[in-house]
């Protein structure tokens, strides 16, 4: 078996390390299939979330992610019926995870919309909104938060990029919109934020 940096991490040596390793291996095998069923991309998105959580040392959410990854892998293998309550919960979490990753991937597009992401996910716009309602942040709040997060990172890069470039690369429709939203969020203009060395 190929060992990855993730598997060698000290975080995986907890008492439930065997369960985590088994879930990862099962998920990895499942994700290598050529199946076009809708849960394989969900499984891959949850695996990416798991990897991110491990790298960030965010151990609080890891057990829940391991369970979802295992359930999605078992759905893919046919061991859990897709219509069961357990499967529906795993599919909801997987779809939300994939939706967030699609938002990140298409963040630079000002036209990023619930309709666009719902179509990529193969769900209705209403269902997409329900997925985000469960998180306490709407789709548009999630997009705005990701755009602000990315813009904060870019404002701290050296050498500094023009603020207009940052605004457009983060998907803000105009420089004025970027200034308004950024200033409301941070209490500083983008230029002031950069000058403060955040």
Summarize the structure in words.
The chain is mostly helical. It is elongated and about 55 Å long. The longest helix is centred in the middle third of the chain and has 21 residues, at 85-105. Helices cover 67% and strands 0% of the residues. The protein has 2 domains: 5-104, no CATH class; 143-195, Arc Repressor Mutant, subunit A.
Keywords for this entry:
67% helix, 11 helices, Arc Repressor Mutant, subunit A, mainly alpha, 198 residues, disordered N terminus
List the helices and strands and how they pair.
Blueprint lengths: L4 H4 L8 H15 L7 H18 L5 H16 L7 H21 L8 H8 L3 H9 L5 H17 L7 H7 L5 H12 L3 H6 L3
Helix pairs in contact: 2-3, 2-4, 3-4, 3-5, 4-5, 5-6, 6-7
Largest sheet: none
In the predicted model, the low-confidence regions spanning at least 5 consecutive residues are 1-36
What percentage of residues falls in helices of 4 or more residues? Answer: 55-70%
Anisotropy-based shape: elongated
Q: What Rg do the Cα atoms give?
A: 19 Å
Task: Output mean pLDDT.
Answer: 83
Number of strands: 0
Q: Please give the domain count.
A: 2
Note the total helix count.
11
Which class of secondary structure composition applies to the elements?
Answer: mainly alpha
Order of helices and strands: HHHHHHHHHHH
Give the strand content.
under 5%
First CA to last CA: what distance? 43 Å
């Amino acid at each position: 078996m190929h060992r990855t940096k993730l598997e060698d991490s000290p975080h995986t040596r907890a008492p439930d390390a065997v369960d985590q390793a088994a879930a990862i291996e099962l998920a990895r095998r499942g994700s290598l299939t050529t199946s076009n069923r809708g849960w394989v991309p969900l499984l891959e998105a949850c695996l990416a979330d798991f990897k991110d959580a491990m790298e960030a040392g965010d151990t609080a959410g890891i057990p829940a992610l391991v369970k979802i990854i295992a359930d999605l892998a078992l759905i893919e293998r046919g061991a859990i019926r897709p219509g069961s309550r357990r499967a529906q919960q795993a599919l909801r979490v997987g779809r939300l995870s994939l939706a967030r990753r699609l938002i990140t991937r298409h963040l630079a597009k000002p036209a990023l919309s619930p309709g666009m992401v719902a179509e990529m996910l193969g769900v209705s716009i209403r269902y997409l909104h329900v997925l985000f309602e469960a998180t306490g942040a709407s789709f548009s709040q999630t997009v705005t938060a990701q755009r602000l997060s990315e813009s904060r990172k870019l404002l701290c890069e050296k050498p500094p990029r023009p603020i207009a470039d940052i605004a457009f690369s983060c998907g803000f429709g105009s420089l004025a919109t970027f200034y308004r939203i950024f200033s409301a969020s941070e209490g500083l203009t983008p230029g002031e934020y950069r000058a403060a060395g955040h």
